[in-house]
Amino acid sequence: MKMKNILSYTPEELKALMGEIGEPAYRAGQIFSQLHKGISLDEMTNVGKATKEKLSRVVDVAFPGVRRKLVSRLDGTVKYLFELTDGNCIESVVMRYEHGYTICISSQVGCRMGCKFCASTLAGRVRDLEAGELLGQIIAAQRDLGIRISNVVMMGIGEPLDNFDNVVRFLKLVNLPEGINIGYRHISLSTCGVVPKIYELAKLDLPITLSISLHAPDDETRSAIMPVNNTWGVSELLDACRDYYRVTERRMSFEYTLISGKNDSVESAAHLARVLNSHLRSKSETMPIHVNLIPVNEVEESGFKSTGRDAVRRFAAELEKKGIRATIRRTLGSDINASCGQLRREETKGE
Ligand code: SAH
Questions:
Q1: I need a labelling partner for 30 at 20 to 30 A (CA). Which of 82, 245, 263, 284 fits?
Q2: What does the alpha-carbon distance between residue 135 and residue 59 come to, in Å, rounded to a whole number?
C-alpha cells in the first residue's frame, strides 16, 4: 500500500522509510511517539533540519488543519471542519461525557452509500481517508483542546467498512502503547451493513464494538431509505451480526434513526423486536442486544421529519417489553448542527 501521510506508518515502517532516505533508523521511534502526541515534525527539537526536509519530501507531515471550529454553548461539544493536505474537508466532533472525551471521526471524504436521510452522502464519495488521516483527527483535536481523548466512535462522514484496509490499519495504530494508546474496547465502528466486510472484521477478532445502522426491521422499508439493503438484506445482515458476536463475544449495538411516518410506529417497534429476537437469540444463546434510538436530524434535502418525544418513548417501551434494551440518544451540540456531514455540506454547497 502506497502511503502519503507520515501518520499512516507503523514504527517499523517508519524505520524502513528512514533507511530509504539515508537517515538513522533509531530516529523513527522518537519521531513516531512525538507525532502521535501531537508534536509536529517542525516543532521537534531533537530532530535536525536536514532530516525534517528529507522526510517532508517523501511524505505529508502536516496534521489536519482547523478550517472551522464550532463550540456548543449548551454542552461544550466541539465540531471541527478539518482541512486535509489536498484541500478536502472532513468533520470530527468532540463530546464530553462524565467518563471522559469521545471523538466521532470521519472515515472517507463523502460517502457512496446513499442513505436517504444522511447529509454526508448527498454529493457521493470523493476519496478514502488514509489511516494517518483518521488518526490525524484525534491528534489535531487533542492538540487543539489540550485534552486526552479516551473513546473513539467511527460515526462521522463515510462508511468505514467501504475503506476496510485503511480502517483496520488505523485501529491497530491507535491502539499502540507508544502512540495514542486507546484500547479496542473504547472504540466503536458503525456500519450501514457491508456484509462481507463484517465477516472479515470478525475474523480479525479485535474487541471493538460494532454498531449496526439498522433503521428498519423489514427489507421494504429499509431498502427505501438505505440502498445498501438492496445488496444485503436484513436477514443477511443479521446473520453476519450473529457470526460477529459468536467470534468476538462483544456486545453489539443497533442504531435506529426514527423518521416520522416511515419507521417509527409501535408496530415497527414490535416488528424490530421480533426480527432481532428471532435472528440473534435462541434457547442456548442470549446475545445482549442494545438499540439506540435517534430521532432523525432533519436534513433540508431529505424532507424527512423527526419523530416526537412521546412517540420515541412509546417505541422504546415496546422494545423493552419484548426484551430488547433501548436507549434514547441524548442530543449533544444541537445548536451547532453537530451531526456529521452537515458542516462539510455547507462548505461545499456552492462549489
Ligand atoms: N456509514 C456508517 C457511519 C456513519 S453514519 C453508518 O452508516 O453507520 C453514523 C450514524 O448516523 C449512522 O447510524 C447513520 O445512519 C446516522 N445518521 C446519518 N444521518 C443522520 C440523520 N440525518 N439523522 C440521524 N441519524 C443520522
A1: 82
A2: 16
Take residue 326 and report the three cell numbers written for it.
433501548
Distance CA 46, CA 44 (A): 6
| DSSP notation for 190-216 | EES--HHHHHHHHHHT--PEEEEE---
Please say whether the beta carbons of 101 and 94 come within 8 A: yes
Averaged pLDDT in 10-residue chunks for the chain of 351 residues: 89 96 94 97 96 96 96 92 96 93 98 94 95 98 98 97 98 97 97 98 95 98 98 97 92 94 97 95 80 89 88 96 91 69 64 43
| Residue-level pLDDT at 351 | 43
Give the pLDDT of residue 190: 97
Q: Check pocket membership of 213 for ligand 1, CB cut-off 6 A.
A: yes
Distance 224 CA to ligand 1 centre (A): 15
294 CA from centroid of ligand 1 (Å): 9
**Measured distance CA(183)–CA(6) in Å, rounded:** 22
> What pLDDT does residue 65 have?
98
Confidence at residue 252, expressed as pLDDT on a 0 to 100 scale: 87
For residues 326 and 286, give the distance between their C-alpha atoms in angstroms, rounded to a whole number: 16
Q: Which residues contact 265 (CB under 8 A, 6 or more apart)?
A: 315
Compute the distance between CA of residue 268 and CA of residue 84 in angstroms, rounded to an integer.
42
Please tell me the predicted confidence (pLDDT) of residue 350: 44
Task: Give me the helices (H) in 205-308, please.
Answer: 219-225, 234-248, 266-280
Whether the CA torsion 114, 162, 215, 242 is positive or negative: it is: positive
Residue 148 pLDDT: 97
Task: Evaluate: CB of 190 within 6 angstroms of ligand 1.
Answer: yes
Collapse the DSSP code of 144 into the 3-class scheme (helix H, G, I; strand E, B; otherwise coil) and give the result: helix
CB 294 within 8 A of CB 288: no
Predicted local confidence at residue 22, as pLDDT: 95
The CA radius of gyration of the chain, in Å to the nearest whole number, is 21
Which member of 23, 89, 91, 255 is catalytic? Answer: 91
Q: Which of 163, 157, 147, 162 is nearest to 193 (CA)?
A: 162
